[in-house]
């Protein structure tokens, strides 16, 4: 039985266009999914759109459209972006898909029958932009939402509540006491800000607007958008549906590694309410929730409401999908907030993709072509000991980091190897070896470079998906299937005559 990996992104609100912040989460998920594919896992990668709620209803009204008309075009634009960014998702869920709506109704009924949901009245301040009832800590001195910086609504209506208060102990001593939420410091944030002060029952239906999934028992109520949204992670797999084979495989099986990604402002929903919903349904918990920071633009969160967004499509058109994937993977580690500006982007592109990687591949290709007519016969080659060991070490460090979802650290391992190769060229001065006609040493140098560039290229495969084939061709392995096993043990690798030199990652000025 192959190992299994299920990875999810949050489902995005189609209340505006997606920006770099959204592309961030999805790209991280894509890199990890592709890495697990390379490791022989059977994978399922879910993304989608969160289409109900007051905010969407308002946006559609403003545009003079029905919600469905409004959504069609937005969802198309999501898919266009994911295609341009080479996102290899397995399934795209829309919360307006009928299978999802029907399953949410069934889930609501189950929770009601099990006694986890009861009727009552709610009064409190609601942020439409975050689709969230706020507590005092989340409101600033001007009575605005601290996260979205928008005005709040006073909501006073009958509602159904989920008995989250029953799960105080479960949250403190199970969910947030183990390795589920990473990085670890986020656990303390959740415990101290939301769980320990006391878990209040969560309002899970609304009556003051209608763009949502009506509940069967009392159709003037629609399901709260977060109940509707969180459950997408299991409805998409077929939970409570005729064909639930994916659910059995990717959720119920305790051996499946389930990774969910979410930005810091929605960790609360994913690390408290979602585990409680799952527990109430008697279902297993995800293996990990990876909470990440925000991408800042001029030190504030990039967001539609602040108007400081960078359009990922524009970046892709200017620099290519790989350049953006690389920046996201390397320069924006998940543990903290990161900055995105054109200057930083170009600086990073030139330093790492153009100078380190691109240049290394191209100069090595040039030398092998010039000195050996494009083919190095490795029969009696002696590989450089130090660089060969570094290559092998790089693979194991990379695997360890990727297994811990530390993409940025894993990329740093590759770049270090690239720097070592570039330094090796300067030290060995192959052009002098050629002048001296020391062809046996020249061959050792070229073979050592070819070997380590092969390793680097394979490790970059989940990130540089557009350029991978070109890179592999330039190093002499066109159409050759590499694997971790092959690059570690260095067997079965048969080079062909090098492909033509192409400039990949041309310096930007
Ligand atoms: N619809 C909800 C999620 C429901 S999941 C069951 C939602 N949607 S969202 O479109 O507002 O945001 C989705 C994700 O994008 C969040 O993880 C959020 O953190 C991420 N980002 C939005 N702006 C961001 C940045 N500027 N930086 C990094 N990620 C940010 O919330």
From TrEMBL:
Motif residue range(s): 'HIGH' region: 12-22
Compartment list: Cytoplasm
Principal EC category: ligase
Any GO BP: methionyl-tRNA aminoacylation
Motif ('KMSKS' region): 301-305
Pfam families in the record: Anticodon_1, tRNA-synt_1g
Domain Methionyl/Leucyl tRNA synthetase residue range list: 5-140, 142-364
Amino acids binding Zn(2+): 127, 130, 145
Reaction equations catalysed: tRNA(Met) + L-methionine + ATP = L-methionyl-tRNA(Met) + AMP + diphosphate
GO cellular component, one term: cytoplasm
Gene3D superfamilies: 2.170.220.10, HUPs, Isoleucyl-tRNA Synthetase, Domain 1
Highest taxon, organism lineage: Bacteria
Sorted UniProt keywords: Aminoacyl-tRNA synthetase, ATP-binding, Cytoplasm, Ligase, Nucleotide-binding, Protein biosynthesis
EC numbers on record: 6.1.1.10
Nucleotide-binding keyword on record: yes
GO molecular function: ATP binding; methionine-tRNA ligase activity
Family stated for the protein in its record: Belongs to the class-I aminoacyl-tRNA synthetase family.
Function: Is required not only for elongation of protein synthesis but also for the initiation of all mRNA translation through initiator tRNA(fMet) aminoacylation.
Subunit structure of this chain's protein: Monomer.
HAMAP family listed in its UniProt record: Met_tRNA_synth_type2
Name of the protein this chain belongs to: Methionine--tRNA ligase
Native species: Mesoplasma coleopterae
Gene this protein is translated from: metS
């Amino acid at each position: 039985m192959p190992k299994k990996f299920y990875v999810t992104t949050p489902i995005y609100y189609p209340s505006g266009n997606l920006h770099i912040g959204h592309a961030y989460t999805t790209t991280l998920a894509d890199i990890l999914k592709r890495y697990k594919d390379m490791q022989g896992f059977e994978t399922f990668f879910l993304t989608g759109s969160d289409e109900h709620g007051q905010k969407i209803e308002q946006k559609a009204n403003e545009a003079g459209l029905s919600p469905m008309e409004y959504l069609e075009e937005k969802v198309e634009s999501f898919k266009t972006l994911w295609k341009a960014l080479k996102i290899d998702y397995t399934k795209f869920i829309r919360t307006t898909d009928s299978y999802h709506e029907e399953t949410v109704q069934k889930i609501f009924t189950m929770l009601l029958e099990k006694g986890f949901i009861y009727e009552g009245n709610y009064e409190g301040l609601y942020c439409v932009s975050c689709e969230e009832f706020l507590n005092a800590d989340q409101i600033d001195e001007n009575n605005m939402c601290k996260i979205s910086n928008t005005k709040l609504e006073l909501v006073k209506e009958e509602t159904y509540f989920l008995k989250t208060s029953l799960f105080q102990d479960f949250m403190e001593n199970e969910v947030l006491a183990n390795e589920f939420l990473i990085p670890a410091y986020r656990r303390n944030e959740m415990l101290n800000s939301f769980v320990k002060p006391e878990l209040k029952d969560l309002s899970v239906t609304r009556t003051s607007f209608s763009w949502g999934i009506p509940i069967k028992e009392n159709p003037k109520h629609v399901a709260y958008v977060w109940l509707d949204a969180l459950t997408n992670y299991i409805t998409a797999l077929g939970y409570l549906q005729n064909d639930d084979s994916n659910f059995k495989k990717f959720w119920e099986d305790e051996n499946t590694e389930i990774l969910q990604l979410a930005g810091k402002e929605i960790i609360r929903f994913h690390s408290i309410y979602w585990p409680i919903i799952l527990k109430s349904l008697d279902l297993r918990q995800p293996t990990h929730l990876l909470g990440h920071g925000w991408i800042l633009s001029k030190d504030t969160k990039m967001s539609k409401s602040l108007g400081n967004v960078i359009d990922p499509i524009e970046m892709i058109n200017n620099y290519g999908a790989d350049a953006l994937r690389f920046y996201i993977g390397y320069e924006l580690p998940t543990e903290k907030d990161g900055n995105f500006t054109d200057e930083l982007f170009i600086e990073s592109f030139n330093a790492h993709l153009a100078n380190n990687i691109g240049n290394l591949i191209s100069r090595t290709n040039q030398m092998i072509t010039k000195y050996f007519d494009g083919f190095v016969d490795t029969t009696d080659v002696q590989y450089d000991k130090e660089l060969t060991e570094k290559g092998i070490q790089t693979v194991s460090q990379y695997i360890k980091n990727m297994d811990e979802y530390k993409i940025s650290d894993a990329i740093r391992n590759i770049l270090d190897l690239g720097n070592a190769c570039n330094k090796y060229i300067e030290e060995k001065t192959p052009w002098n070896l050629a002048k001296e006609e020391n062809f046996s040493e020249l061959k050792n140098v070229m073979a050592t470079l070819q070997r380590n560039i092969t390793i680097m290229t394979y490790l970059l495969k989940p990130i540089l998906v557009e350029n991978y084939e070109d890179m592999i061709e330039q190093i002499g392995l066109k159409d050759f299937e590499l694997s971790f096993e092959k690059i570690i043990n260095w067997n079965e690798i048969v080079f062909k005559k090098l492909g033509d030199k192409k400039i990949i990652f041309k310096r930007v000025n």
